[in-house]
Amino acid sequence: MENGKKNKSKVFKWLDERYNLSGLIDFAKKKSVPKFRETIWYYFGGVALLLFVVQVISGILLLMYYKGTEDLAFESVYFISTKVSFGWLIRSVHSWSANLMVLSVFIHMFSVYFLKGFRKPRELTWYTGIGLLAISMAFGFSGYLLPWNELAFFATKVGTDIVGEVPLVGEPILKLLRGGEDVTGATLSRFFGFHVAIFPGIFVILLTLHLLMIQRQGIAEPEDYKNLPANEKKTIPFFPNFAMRELLIWLIVINILAILAVFFPWELGTKADAFSSAPVGIKPEWYFLFMFQVFKFLPGEILFLPGEFVGIVLFGIGILLWAIVPVWDRKTSKGGKNTILTYFGIFVIIFIIVFTILGFILD
Amino acid sequence: MSNHSDDSNQSSKPKRRDFLNILLGGGFVVWLGALFFPVFKYLEPPVVEEVKVSNVKIGAVEDMEKDSGKIIKFGNKPVIVIRKQTGEYIAFGGVCTHLDCIVQYRKDYGQIYCACHNGRYDLNGRVASGPPPAPLTKYGVTIKDNEVIIYQEST
Predict the structure, then answer these.
(1) Complex ipTM, two decimals?
(2) B100 min Cα distance to partner chain A (Å)
């Protein structure tokens, strides 16, 4: 190390004098990650981050050819997929990476939930994470419409109609989202704007806060690990050990992404037509599938209320409870184990898995 | 005396400050309102004048096969027209009352079907099964000079 310091370049010295790089390096050296059975889950936030970067880059590339209007959207995506060199690849990467990103955000969230990483003093990190998850799904939902194909058209009709069912605010929000009463070219323009301008802006702000808070407070230690005697607490230095492992996982993820994008190129389907029936077997993206399946099962009326309304209210309450878990989890914040919390989490996972599978296999 | 004047000073000073704060705060709120009002109004899509359609001609009677259905444009609304096995024509609003998808005629069920959430309606437009909360709107059909005309029934 001593040798290294002596050999520091002039550039480094110039920068260090002005920006105190040594301070940053000292901080980085002290960073460490707890080493225990569940350390693997600590990598998924980083995976989501990598895939977000992939999304930004591939998204900007798609913007070079995409045209966000009713008449040209489908044709421009068709043009990208058939005429532009490697256009099919860029589009396929963007679609697959979106799905993998949502998946890793979900894994990241559940691991934080079960390891109780949201408890005091990290409540705000959890809330910004919930915001990032919501925007990731909003990214997926808005991006899904952009090719202006039949599936996307009906998915958007259903999705926005559900928003319209929310009491009081639903109707104005529906109009705001659709740019009118129905899903039309106006909706496409708005979704395009959300997808490439508004969501990225909010996402970057939340992500910056999320990461700053983690740097400021250090990584969360789960209860069992925290209570170990100091000499039994194993850690891995963040630099270079953890970072190198994260890089290795990134490499694996990029390979998975490449395999999926190349061998399972994303379909385009047929152009949306506001005057054609919804095709038989229509399904939303997998991360909305469990909700979709529940809506299929709900009867027209439950206790004199419209079935879909009851569904929306129940989902709303469930999602809200999940989002504000730091508020109602009193036990864990005092250092005790909250088994109800774990059972609730397991129930949610089983619920999601069962209804997702039903959504795939049932007509 | 000096005490007295101190007291009056203390009680009057915050009052003046409070007044200024309210004035400034109120002004700020009004300013925000003036700033956001046009933005909110801008986001609200203008109502486009719709061409009023009272009836649509869809072609000759024999154009549609028996036991089949199709979606037609009724102004800017989709309408499903079905020709029953008997040769009789019927028509309903094509938008599912559940979550806004467009329905279709299913020969195999002999019913109107919505592919989004498995909603089914009978050939009177009433809900037969599945999640739809309300029946489809009925449209009228007349045949004039061998031409099928769909019209909106006055309610």
Answers:
(1) 0.72
(2) 6
